[in-house]
Design goal:
This protein is mainly alpha-helical. About 55% of the residues lie in helices and about 10% in strands. Helix 1 runs antiparallel to helix 9, helix 2 crosses helix 3 and helix 2 runs parallel beside helix 9.
């Protein structure tokens, strides 16, 4: 099992190829990290980082803010308050690697009960999960869930289809990501 997870992480670390290939690598790593909605994690990565081109903190591709006492990087960011878009400086959490950043994104949602309360873990589709993230306050943009769903659709998946069905589709679609898909399936079957 450990080697399958390591394989998925190594695939995610090698972020080369088309946007769809990068999306699928992040998607596989999120699935290996235990997120029930890997398409949402991959879409967040794409949206928050401009498809991996920018980091809000060191190896922070998800816009996770640093808490008091955590290592962070201060950057200019857009927030929406009372319907108005404003630019502010804020501190974003630093990570030692992409692997650590993805794992903490998954853990961040688990350790913050507001996402459970908003329905992230009972959501059946990526759309429902994206709405739950927005309800839970992940982002201030009122269009956050719709933006995530547009990215999911653009990557070739159906945000209205059950997350498990999209995982099966991913295995069939991406011959180049076969090792990642097999590694992820091994982790799921061993659990």
């Amino acid at each position: 099992v450990g080697s399958a997870v390591t394989g998925a992480w190594n695939q995610a670390k090698a972020l080369s190829g088309s946007n769809r290939e990068k999306y699928n690598k992040i998607r596989g790593a999120a699935l290996s990290a235990g997120d029930p909605h890997p398409d949402v994690v991959a879409a967040q990565w794409a949206l928050e980082s401009g498809w991996g081109k920018k980091q809000s903190g060191r190896h922070n591709y998800f816009g996770i803010k640093a808490q008091k006492g955590e290592s962070g990087t201060t950057v200019r960011t857009r927030e929406v308050y009372s319907g108005k878009s404003v630019m502010i400086n804020d501190s974003f959490k630093n990570y030692n690697s992409l692997e650590e950043g993805i794992a903490d994104r998954v853990a961040f949602i688990k350790r913050n009960p507001r996402y459970t309360k908003a329905g992230y873990y009972i959501a059946k589709t990526p759309y429902e999960a994206a709405v739950a993230l927005q309800k839970g306050g992940y982002a201030t943009d009122p269009n956050y869930a719709n933006l995530l769903c547009k990215i999911i659709k653009g990557a070739g998946y159906d945000p209205g289809k059950a997350s498990s069905a999209n995982t099966q589709t991913a295995g069939n679609k991406n011959a180049n990501d076969g090792a990642l898909t097999r590694g992820v399936d091994s982790v799921k079957n061993a659990a």
